Amino acid sequence: MTLFDAELETRLTRYAALDSQSDAASATGPSTEIQWTILRLLADELKAIGAAEVQLTDYGTVLATIPATAQGPTIGFLAHVDTAPQFNAKGVKPRAIHGYNGGDITFPDAPGLVLSPSDFPYLATKQGHTIVTASGTTLLGADDKAGVAIIMTAARHLLENPSIPHGPIRIAFTPDEEIGRGVDARLPADLKADFAYTFDGGAVGEVEYESFSADGAVVTVKGVSIHPGTATGRMVNAISLAAKIIAALPQSTMTPETTAGRDGFIHATDMTGSASEMVLHFILRDFEREGLAQKGEILRQVCAAVQATEPRAEITCTITPQYRNMRYWLETDMTPVDLARAACARIGVSPVSVPIRGGTDGSRLTEMGVPCPNLFTGMQNIHGPLEWVSVQDMAQATQLLLALVQEAAAPST
Ligand SMILES: [Zn+2]
Fold first, then answer.
1. Chain CA centroid to CA 184, Å
2. Which residues are CB-neighbours of 228 under 8 A, at least 6 positions away?
3. pTM, 2 dp
4. How far is 103 from 250, CA to CA, in rounded Å?
5. Cα of 106 to ligand 1 centre, how many Å?
6. Which one is catalytic: 7, 9, 82, 361?
């Protein structure tokens, strides 16, 4: 047992039981009404533990301050309250396995489902820990309610122990991170932090400051619609042309399922429509601007080539920027990363920095002027029924936050 285990377990299971799934198809902000429930709850809990300036903004972000007890920069800590739309998140029944025995974990609501340390070596290192999972039919939502629980627990501890020296701390709980809309344009000004961290990472030690650079693309194919009985020589089927576009893309070398490490991809996420008109959505990802631009160029060239085969069709390709690799900003001032690494050293954890094959709220926030690396929470196998987290890993993340604010207030070097 460490100092924070019981509190972290209670908070995580309480927050995880609240459905707060986001929805990319919704035009509202937050994208789902249910996210307000947990946002209001967190605002109330922050007030109850004595946080200052607690505010729930009309764009669905909870903000709060832990007043300074020493000189230091203003540091923000963020976690997102929404859970991923990719898997069932209704009726999450979190359960804690105390003193994990190192064997296979089965699930009460899904008899065939097994979480095995032989498939997930990280789990094998957690013998004796408290492991939290869902019941088999839903995701757990440790992504990112582990982050929320970590920040709430550290906040409660700091407010109860004003003898711990730290500068001003700002807290932000955001909606809609999973659908890429977590950072409202007003957030940087409202957060008022010199720099910030998201607690939205995985294995103990992760201090991440590289994310993908990301664009979205929409390809529209307009064919020529006519009754099939009189179509000879006149119909242009948009579905056939859309299929040609997909087939002409580098399917064996540049898709999510064929790339890893530092390689980017072109991913067709959905395709809808009919013989008269098809709409195709893509996401383009790369760690470098040049690589991202090249992927956009490939998509444009494929569209142009298919267009050239059928002048009566009308094919358009629109590429829109989404977020950029946070390294571009952080490498000019590594202070937030260095502080997180020094804090890891304080608590005896070896920091690891691997590029994130995705983006975080920190990617947008960094681009908008608030440098924001991502820190570990312990969460594993996110966005599916095998999601799990060790409470002791979360306790290390809580200790990291506490070490970090003290390191910033009184640098050891
Ligand atoms: Zn997350």
1. 15
2. 235
3. 0.91
4. 41
5. 25
6. 82
In the residue annotation, 177 being an active-site residue is answered as: yes
Active-site annotation holder among 177, 194, 200, 393: 177
CA atoms of 288 and 325, how far apart (whole Å): 7
**Going residue by residue through the chain (413 aa), what tens digit of pLDDT does each one get?**
578 999 999 999 999 999 999 998 999 999 999 999 999 999 999 999 999 999 999 999 999 999 999 999 999 999 999 999 999 999 999 999 999 999 999 999 999 999 999 999 999 999 999 999 999 999 999 999 999 999 999 999 999 999 999 999 999 999 999 998 899 999 999 999 999 999 999 999 999 999 999 999 999 999 999 999 999 999 999 999 999 999 999 999 999 999 999 999 999 999 999 999 999 999 999 999 999 999 999 999 999 999 999 999 999 999 999 999 999 999 999 999 999 999 999 999 999 999 999 988 999 999 999 999 999 999 999 999 999 999 999 999 999 999 999 999 975 54
For residues 131 and 379, give the distance between their C-alpha atoms in angstroms, rounded to a whole number.
Answer: 10
Residues in the chain: 413
Nearest to 264 by CA among 219, 213, 323, 207: 213
How far, in Å, from the CA of 124 to the mean position of ligand 1?
Answer: 23
Tokens of 334: 């590594």
What is the distance in A from the centroid of ligand 1 to the CA of 250? 29
Contact status, residue 211 vs residue 358, Cβ threshold 8 Å? yes
Spacing, Cα 222 to ligand 1 middle (Å): 37
Q: How many Å lie between the centroid of ligand 1 and the Cα of residue 394?
A: 14
